[in-house]
Amino acid sequence: MADSFAPTKQDRFSFGLWTVGNPGADPFGPRVRPRIEPVDIVKNLGKLGAWGVCLHDNDLIPIDATPAQAEQKMRDFETALKDNDMVVSMGTTNLFSHPVFRDGAFTTPDPAVRRYALQKICNGMDMCIGRFKTNLYVMWGGREGTDTDCGKDAVEAFKRYRDALNYVCHYAKDRKYDVRFAIEAKPNEPRADIYLATTGSVLGFIATLDYPEMVGVNPEVGHEVMAGLNFYHVVAQAIEAGKLYHCDLNNQKIGRFDQDLRFASEDIKGAFYLVKLLEEYGYKGPKHFDAHAYRTEDIEGVWDFAYGCMRSYKILQHKAKLFAKDKEIQALVRKDIAIPSPKFSKEGHAKILKEKFDIEKMAEKGYGYEKLDQLVFDLLLGVRGS
Ligand code: GLT
Ligand code: MN
Ligand code: MN
Known about the structure:
Distance between the termini: 18 Å
Bound molecules: 5-thio-alpha-D-glucopyranose, manganese (II) ion
Shape: globular
Number of strands: 10
Helix content: 40-55%
CATH architecture of the largest domain: Alpha-Beta Barrel
CATH superfamily of the largest domain: Divalent-metal-dependent TIM barrel enzymes
Largest sheet: 8 strands, parallel
CATH class of the largest domain: Alpha Beta
Number of helices: 15
Order of helices and strands: EHHEHHEHEEHEEHEHHEHEHHHHH
């Protein structure tokens, strides 16, 4: 039977090579399934209905590859993209795996490591933007942080962070790259504390850069939940600021390690409000699943996982439409959002001062959210609407 929630290219679903390519290793045990070659990832994702793949430089080119080996890998990858009608939706740099980055890349006190990090990111941009033609570049500061604050002055570290981001933007301008950068926050893991721990913190930092318009955010569900935050609110603020350039979709149980669970597998209601938000505000960027299959899975389970991410998104997209056309629900959704708040003027303020408020009366009325929330529950579980 045809799946009415099957993904299509128009959905712009994408996966990192490191996501479906995750072989299931964890700090307590080795990998449990073979590594899937990038060209096979492209082929299989294409068949499943995905639109794009994204990658770190070293997901495709091993850090010690010779120029000839690198060229061969890039050619094979380009052929696979073309043959399977797939695009590179985003590029990024691995500035966290090699031991040289053990105390960070952009923020380490070691100036030679900082220069190497700049060389590596600019080479990664040349490959992903210059050659694979993506116009999005993510920066996740995995090792930019501390395990103890005895060794680094955090104020200096933030200055170095800013210098590096400015360098990268100047480089992109110099190369005339049509690209936007998206900074991804995370509170901890692999470091005890990572600088720019939340998306809100990133938004504040962007305003201090040389080219703030080139830089936005890449919030990830799991990372904000790890920080105890409401992801729907995080994304809403990014949208309102015009800064939602990319979005990492996955799921996470509260208070755990970075789980990168299949989208919507854990917090169905949270995922619903996220999808509803992205759809209502016409988010046009890649819908990127930064997640991986459970360690219990073999390769077949990996493709079940990938398809599940996309299917769940589409089911929730359908539910968002039902929410919008459900009369009883809509009658309970507050309609006063269209009335704007006053802007200050001397005359307007004089009126506000004169206005008489019967606050006891105003406070009497409930908001009806208990009923509405239950209707949403019924809708999500299929008891209501279809
Ligand atoms: C890493 C991290 C992700 C980031 C990737 C981009 S790499 O897997 O856990 O959240 O999005 O560097
Ligand atoms: Mn994560
Ligand atoms: Mn991520």
